[in-house]
Amino acid sequence: MITILSFKSILAILATLIIAFIISIFIPGIERKYIHGRIQQRIGPPLFSPGLMAPIKFFFKENLKPNSPLPKLYKSLPVISFIVIFLILLFIIPQFYIYGSLASVIAIVGLLKVEEIAYVLMGSLSKSVMSTGMSFPDKIKGAKHLNVKSSFIEDISSSRALRLIIFGSFPLYLALFVPVSTVGSVYLSDILSYQISHGPILFSVSGIIGAIVFFIGYMILLNEYPFAILKTKADVIEGPYMEYSSKYRAINYINRGFLIFVLGSLFSLMFLGYPSNIFSWKFIINVLVALIFPVLMAILSAFSPIFTNKQFYPVILVSSIFGVLAILLGLLI
Question: Where can this protein be found (predicted)?
Answer without folding.
Answer: Membrane
